[in-house]
Design goal:
Layout (H helix, E strand, L loop, with lengths): L4 H8 L4 E5 L9 H8 L7 E8 L3 E8 L2 E3 L1 H7 L5 E3 L5 H5 L17 E4 L8 E4 L5 E5 L1 H8 L2 E3 L2 E3 L1
Length: about 160
């Protein structure tokens, strides 16, 4: 497997991780589909969302796969009055990643990043490897250190 930017950042920071490859379906790039294909607990799979704040510009949120982002909570902890998801067509231009392969690691710029505090319930979590069909399994504490992530309660059950 060819290394992605996300993997190179972890390597450079001497952080241990594992990768998991899986067959993805263009019509369903959801975390739920990934969990079913890889037999990984959906609560350990963190999806990466990119948003725009009315005061802070772009920011990133990582939340469990079957949860929904609480926009009001994220706005409050990020110093915004309002945050909204960016348009899908802008994702590649802003982050360098395509939908279904957007990792919090290795974006074009390092944006303020927030992760749901439930990540600390697990020894390892899964994040996108920066390419469709690749997940990275990593200790959440190491991910938090590398990205200087803010830990908050930012999601709700669907």
């Amino acid at each position: 497997m060819k290394k992605t930017n996300a993997m190179r950042i972890l390597d450079r920071n001497k952080i241990l991780y594992k990768t998991k490859e899986y067959e993805y379906d263009e019509s369903d790039l959801s975390a739920v589909a990934m969990a079913e294909k890889t037999k990984v607990d959906i609560d350990r799979i963190f999806k990466t969302l990119v948003l725009l704040g009315d005061k802070t510009s772009y920011l990133v949120a990582c939340i469990p796969g079957k949860q929904e982002l609480d926009l009001k909570k994220l706005a409050k902890v990020s110093g915004n009055k309002k945050v909204e998801m960016i348009h899908m067509k802008d994702l590649l231009k802003i982050t360098g990643y395509m939908r279904g392969g957007c990792s919090p690691l290795g974006m074009k710029k390092l944006f303020p990043t927030y992760i749901c505090d439930s990540c600390l319930n697990f020894k390892t979590i899964f994040i996108s490897g920066g390419k469709r069909g690749i997940q990275i399994e990593v200790d959440p504490n190491n991910l938090i250190k590398v990205l200087n992530i803010h830990i908050n309660s930012i999601s709700t059950n669907i």
